[in-house]
């Protein structure tokens, strides 16, 4: 087990380093930050001086080595745009993104899994057809469009139709921002205030819709397959209740591939949140990244990408470990491999 | 039950905590101020935010006229010396009095190497406090437009800056951010209440503001949220979550106008959009003609001018929000005249004839560099021009890029044909002439990427910088523009119009520099 963990860790480090290098090389195409850093009156000499101070004249490998060297010491430098330490910027924005991703993930699972099971059990029912058709829309529609449509119906137009059905227009959802936040230590949380929770609704739905439909379709197809297997038939033959058969025996075996996909998708949620955050002006890391790209703010872009790849790697690593917990066969295999001699 | 009681109490407490008449103005635009340090970034949203907390000696009113602010009067007392009489009884919002020492300190700070304004006021040799309410600014030789330049320099408290160790503007060399990046304290109409960069900034009325008798009705609180996504900005305005949007996309203006309870204001912006041509190189770097430069031929430039239909661009690309131009100088700038700005009507037959006369009857190819995130509909303008020039045989290869790639390419003089826009903060023609038309060198013509050079125009531009006789100076400006227009290294396109969108509850005059000053605003 230990050698398995160590080898996975080494692989993870190599993945991160290569991802970081590729991204770093790409940054050279993002342009010259100096354009945005000085006013139009600055002379060519002043521009050249600033470029030299920032080390922008060095070759990409030199800049990359310097970046990795600093990053290892936890030093990501200062944002060209906001002139503040990058690590402080990212940590300030992290709670907003993580709360959004967490809510979106919970929403995706709590709606996706039960619906997946139900549509598998009730094959051919009209309601199943409707859910499956709708789920196609969820898979196909771009996040950007979903967000704008939700804003249009539930924060702009609802001012007209809510009063028409006898409800107050103040039930409309905000179209941007995070509402009021409360600080718990260094963590600025929007989950503790009414306006914060209200502001979370539309972005969380937008972000979760794709994942939700993906989970739904995956659980359904896995479930259909499992329901055909012999041990489910035997379980029925033993006279177990439908509930026990479906949820204790069938669902558990359905979950294995689902967990893999969900694990990867949590990384995906963080990546997808860039679009959701832009549409809803959600003050998270994704938005910080988009603003940084437009400014060619290389320190922030680099730190963000390193961090996102770190999250991907950690999540995948955790999924590997979870596998062992859920599937006893894997546990036995690795135990044998670990203690074989 | 107890929860309901606590909740009721909390709601009541919140309701009572709000002053009965508190008027809050919530507004948004696409980008946030980069810093609150008043001398660190000479950039639109940054200076726009700063002017609410810090005051300058002289300010621009809504017509961009110079009006007294911290200085009550100013005059030249010697060819190279301007005297400023300061306002008496002004206090910083921390209660300390404002004196001439703060002015001297602030100008020294704005001249520091890490300041982004140092080039702007480079003519200043010395700033002297004569008495607590008199300041002399000595320049290197006469500088008739010093008062215009002074409007951009904000005044800080010397004591506050020393206390917080921010006597120099923040520099990119620093390891940590300075105190002045997220804190601010000045003499202005507002004080900083909350600063969350990129998220939310709240300004509250400064109770001790010196101008509160003159500006009685401005809002008690201003909440600024940068909203990047244009559709979200518009949605927030339509849904009543914002009272004011600075930069609604032009295609949504019609919808905002039609919405109940919303209105728009429009005015000509001090920013002109034009095309630059490489007229100096012996051969175009990105062109098909070898051995000679077609742009060096005045007939070709005239033909291009005749082929570009600025009215069609106004109608189809800009949705009416542009004013076709005949000059690269903007309305409102000293030296701009309607006669110079007149544009020859589009005439394809004449353009084709000029091309044939110049020996390019079959046309040629050239690459056009265009930004896609800098000016209103910039990329669409370029696309339209590609089609228009094709009609006279010029095959344009369009290369659109982000501003972070476009401007460095221009600065390397690595373009044959490019789109550029130019705003004029000093509102004086010298600014345009010296940056765009004077011969390119280390200090002058730093944005002249055309290779254009004219000795007469250079001499006039230098002379108008020091000429204190207004009539003589005006004659110089007029002559310089005549030369520039005749030589036409640039093809003028249009002046941008700005549109501000707001709720009917808001009353504010529109500023042609696109920088709202909310002390002129009123909430109904």
Q: Helix/strand/pairing class of chain B, anyone?
A: alpha+beta
Gyration radius of chain A, rounded = 25 Å
CATH homologous superfamily title of chain A: MetI-like
How would you sum up the global shape of chain B? Answer: globular
Q: List low-pLDDT spans of chain A.
A: 332-341
Write the layout of secondary structure elements.
The complex is a heterodimer of chains A (341) and B (524).
Chain A: H1 2-27, H2 34-37, H3 44-53, H4 60-72, H5 86-121, H6 126-140, H7 143-156, H8 158-164, E1 182-184, E2 187-189, H9 194-227, H10 230-237, H11 242-279, H12 285-295, H13 298-326, H14 328-338
Antiparallel strand pairs in A: 1-2
Helix pairs in contact in A: 1-13, 5-6, 5-9, 5-11, 5-13, 6-9, 7-9, 7-11, 9-11, 11-12, 11-13, 12-13, 13-14
Chain B: H1 2-17, E1 24-29, H2 44-50, E2 55-56, E3 58-60, E4 66-68, E5 71-78, E6 81-86, H3 100-110, E7 124-131, E8 134-139, H4 146-150, E9 154-155, H5 158-163, E10 190-196, E11 200-205, E12 221-226, H6 230-238, E13 244-245, H7 253-258, E14 262-277, H8 298-307, H9 310-317, E15 322-324, H10 338-341, H11 348-357, E16 364-371, H12 378-390, E17 394-401, H13 403-411, E18 417-423, H14 429-437, H15 455-466, H16 470-487, E19 490-503, E20 506-507, E21 522-523
Parallel strand pairs in B: 1-12, 1-13, 16-17
Antiparallel strand pairs in B: 2-9, 3-4, 5-6, 6-8, 7-8, 10-11, 11-12, 13-19, 14-18, 14-19, 15-19, 20-21
Helix pairs in contact in B: 8-11, 14-15, 14-16, 15-16
């Amino acid at each position: 087990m230990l050698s398995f963990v160590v080898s996975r860790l080494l692989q993870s480090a190599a993945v991160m380093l290569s991802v970081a290098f590729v991204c770093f090389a790409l940054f050279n195409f993002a342009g010259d930050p100096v354009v945005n850093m000085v006013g139009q009156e600055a002379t060519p000499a002043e521009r050249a001086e600033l470029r030299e101070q920032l080390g922008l004249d060095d070759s990409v490998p030199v800049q990359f080595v310097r970046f990795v060297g600093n990053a290892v010491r936890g030093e990501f430098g200062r944002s060209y745009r906001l002139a503040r330490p990058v690590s402080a910027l990212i940590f300030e924005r992290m709670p907003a993104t993580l709360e959004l991703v967490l809510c979106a993930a919970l929403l995706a699972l709590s709606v996706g899994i039960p619906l997946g099971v139900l549509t598998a059990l009730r094959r051919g029912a009209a309601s199943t057809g409707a859910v499956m058709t709708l789920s196609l829309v969820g898979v196909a529609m771009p996040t950007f469009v979903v967000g704008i449509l939700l804003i249009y119906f539930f924060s702009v137009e609802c001012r007209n139709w809510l009063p028409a059905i006898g409800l107050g227009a103040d039930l409309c959802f905000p179209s941007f921002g995070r509402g009021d936040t409360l600080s718990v230590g260094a963590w600025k949380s929007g989950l503790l205030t009414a306006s914060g929770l209200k502001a979370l609704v539309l972005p969380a739905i937008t972000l979760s819709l794709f994942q939700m439909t993906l989970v739904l379709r995956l659980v359904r197809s896995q479930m259909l397959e499992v329901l055909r297997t012999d041990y489910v038939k035997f379980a029925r033959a033993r006279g177990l209740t439908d509930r026990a058969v479906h949820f204790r025996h069938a669902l558990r075996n359905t979950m294995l591939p689902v967990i893999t996909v969900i694990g990867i998708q949590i990384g995906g949620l963080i990546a997808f949140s860039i679009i959701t955050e832009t549409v809803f002006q959600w003050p998270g890391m994704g938005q910080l990244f988009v603003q940084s790209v437009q400014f060619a703010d290389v320190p922030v872009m680099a730190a963000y990408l390193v961090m996102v790849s770190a999250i991907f790697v950690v999540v995948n690593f955790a999924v590997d470990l979870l596998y062992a917990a859920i599937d006893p066969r894997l546990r036995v295999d690795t135990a044998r491999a670990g203690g074989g001699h | 039950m107890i929860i309901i009681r606590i909740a009721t109490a909390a709601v009541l407490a919140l309701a009572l905590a709000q002053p009965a008449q508190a008027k809050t103005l919530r507004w948004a635009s696409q980008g946030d101020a980069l810093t609150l340090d008043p001398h660190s970034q000479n950039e639109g949203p940054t200076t726009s935010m700063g002017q609410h907390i810090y005051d300058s000696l002289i300010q621009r009113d809504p017509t961009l006229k110079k009006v007294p602010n911290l200085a009550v009067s100013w005059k030249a007392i010697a060819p190279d010396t301007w005297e400023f009489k300061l306002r008496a009884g002004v206090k910083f919002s921390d209660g300390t009095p404002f004196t001439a020492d703060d002015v001297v300190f602030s100008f020294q700070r704005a001249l520091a190497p890490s300041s982004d304004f140092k080039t702007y006021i480079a003519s200043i040799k010395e700033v002297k406090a004569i008495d607590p309410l008199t300041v002399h600014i000595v320049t290197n030789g006469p500088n008739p437009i010093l008062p215009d330049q002074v409007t951009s320099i904000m005044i800080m408290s010397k004591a506050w800056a020393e206390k917080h160790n921010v006597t120099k503007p923040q520099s990119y060399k620093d390891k940590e951010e300075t105190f002045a990046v997220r804190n601010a304290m000045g003499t202005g109409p507002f004080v900083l209440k909350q600063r969350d960069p990129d998220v939310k900034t709240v300004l509250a009325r400064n109770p001790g503001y010196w101008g509160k008798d003159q500006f009685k009705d401005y809002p008690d609180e201003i909440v600024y949220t940068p909203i990047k996504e244009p559709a979200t900005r518009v949605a927030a305005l339509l849904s009543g979550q914002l009272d004011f949007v600075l930069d609604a996309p032009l295609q949504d203006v019609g919808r905002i106008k039609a919405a109940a309870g919303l209105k728009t204001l429009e005015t000509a912006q001090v920013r002109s959009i034009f095309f630059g041509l490489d007229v100096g190189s012996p051969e175009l770097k990105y062109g098909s003609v070898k051995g000679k430069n077609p742009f060096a031929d005045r007939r070709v430039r005239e033909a291009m001018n005749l082929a570009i239909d600025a009215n069609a661009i106004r109608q189809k690309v800009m949705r009416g929000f542009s004013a076709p131009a005949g000059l690269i100088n903007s309305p409102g700038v000293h030296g701009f005249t309607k006669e110079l700005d007149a544009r020859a009507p589009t005439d394809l037959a004449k353009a084709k004839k000029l091309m044939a006369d110049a020996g390019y009857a079959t046309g040629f190819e050239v690459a056009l560099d265009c930004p896609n995130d800098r000016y209103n509909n910039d990329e669409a303008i370029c696309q339209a021009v590609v089609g228009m020039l094709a009609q006279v045989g010029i095959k344009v290869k369009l290369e659109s890029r982000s501003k972070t790639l476009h401007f460095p390419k221009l600065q390397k003089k690595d373009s044959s044909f490019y789109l550029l826009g130019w705003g004029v903060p000093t509102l004086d023609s010298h600014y345009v002439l010296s940056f765009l038309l004077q011969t390119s060198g280390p200090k002058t013509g730093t944005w002249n990427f055309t290779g254009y050079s004219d000795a007469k125009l250079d001499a006039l531009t230098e002379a108008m910088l020091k000429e204190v006789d207004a009539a003589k100076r005006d004659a110089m400006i007029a002559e310089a523009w005549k030369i520039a227009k005749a030589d036409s290294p640039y093809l003028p396109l249009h002046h941008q119009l700005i549109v501000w969108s707001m709720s009917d509850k808001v009353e504010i005059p529109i500023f042609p520099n696109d920088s709202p000053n909310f002390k002129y605003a009123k909430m109904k």
